[in-house]
Amino acid sequence: MVGVSAGGMLALERLLACLPVGFASAVIIVQHLHPTEDGYLALHLDQHCALPVGVAEDKAPVCPATVTLAPAGYHLLVERCRTFALSIDARVCFARPAIDVLFESAARVWGARLWGVLLTGANHDGTRGLAEIRALGGRTIAQDPADAEHPLMPQTAIDAGVVQQVLTLDGIGALLAALPAAASAMEQERII
Amino acid sequence: MDPQQLESIEVDLLLEAIYRRYGHDFRNYARASIERRVRQFHAQSGCATLSDMLPRLLHDEAFFADFVTRFSIPVTELFRDPQVYLALRNEVMPVLRTFPFLRIWHAGCASGEEVYSLAILLDEAGLLARSTLFATDFNDTALERARAGIYSAADMGEASRAYQRAGGARSLADYYHADAQHIVMKRRLRERVTFANHNLVTDGVFTEAHLVLCRNVLIYFNQALQDRVLGLFRDTLVRGGYLCLGTRENLRFSAVDSSFEVVDAACRLYKRLA
Ligand SMILES: C[S@@+](CC[C@H](N)C(=O)[O-])C[C@H]1O[C@@H](n2cnc3c(N)ncnc32)[C@H](O)[C@@H]1O
Question: Is B29 strand, coil or helix?
Fold first, then answer.
């Protein structure tokens, strides 16, 4: 589960390039985008990633070993039955999709098996979401603000005391790459 | 019992109470969004637990009215997703032209911007005079705004760019009267549209139609409710009639899939099979 905003294109490119063939978890990403760009972003990131990168469809199942982006203009949520759900409810922190909305719903679905990662960005989105992930036993990681193109978003979360681990983008990439490859069903369901 | 299971029971009880007390049936709405809205409402309600809202919802109609506005989010725009209107213009209008008269049902029309966008397309295809548009929603406040056809002038820059990307060759300003703050859609568009309250969960087939548009409403329903509503659309459409969904909604996971063929996959345009 990755939340990213301003400066996100390059950050995602680098992060997704770290994911190895055989990476077994599902990766779900909210990037605050301009409402007409999402097809392009997915196509572009697909070229930089060993896993298939796509845009979420309403009611589609969450699949392991794939990367899914929130569509521009919609909040992305996850249902308990592990399908995607969309909404065009009001913006949160001026954003739709909002990181908080995804993180809060995913925390309820995956609890301790969820990792929440917050990258570069110039607003306050993501802090509440990470707090919820922590409260429900998940793991929270933020990009080192000194390493981020826009430090405000990770810094806000760190200041709120909801981040367990602060790493550079390369550090986060290495951590993800080192996750054990597809072994048990349990492992497959782990969500980043 | 873990707190989430408990919360789930509380939400069930609230939805059941609302249904039996007021007839509004949210029991088959997509759960993740419903729970988010219930939690948000609860956070500013002053009640200690979710189930503490139960007596107030049952006995205090104003409290319920406040609650229910959270479940209808009438967010919409003129020419939202211009490429969809372009596809309607190029792929659907030529076929609609072969019918002597046209009925169009816009379900979940919110404050009406989409309906007027479509009326503009029909006008430019020379079909408006033989068209009747029905636009429905279950939110009376939104319907009232739709009927008035008054929108903020500040949004017209964006709308006009969308109109052009939708293949519009005139000026969007030809279709409304403006003052400094507001615009009002011209009467000849408004008079083709009949606005009515219709609840997709509890009401039945509304009319026979050649084109049904229901965009960004199904995302709020669970699969069972989506199947019911899509069945309603199938029964509404004449053979060869068109269905247009939101750009992230689709028939792939639904039971009516086999009654439709895909006309334009990216724009979620489908055709009712014979
Ligand atoms: C997000 S708006 C979509 C507006 C427009 N179709 C668009 O895509 O721009 C969703 C609309 O669905 C309506 N709606 C939700 N549940 C409904 C129901 N059971 N029956 C009729 N309308 C409903 C809401 O009132 C709201 O206006």
Answer: strand
CA B157 to chain centre: 23
Q: Which domains does chain B have, with CATH numbers?
A: 3-69 (no CATH), 82-272 (3.40.50.150)
Confidence band for B254, pLDDT divided at 50, 70 and 90: confident
Measure the CA dihedral B202/B204/B210/B213, to 10°.
0
Closest to B149 in 3D by CA, of B185, B121, B117: B185
Contact B219 A86 (CB under 8 A): yes
Spatial CA neighbour of A3 closest among A88, A91, A125, A167: A125
Residue A191 maps to a domain: no
Binding site membership of B75 for ligand 1 (Cβ less than 6 Å): yes
Gap from CA of B74 to ligand 1 centroid (Å)? 6
pLDDT category, B94, cuts 50, 70, 90? very high
ipTM for this prediction: 0.89
For residue B133 the two structure tokens come to 């548009």
Pairing state between β B269-272 and B260-264: antiparallel
Two tokens at B216? 């960004």
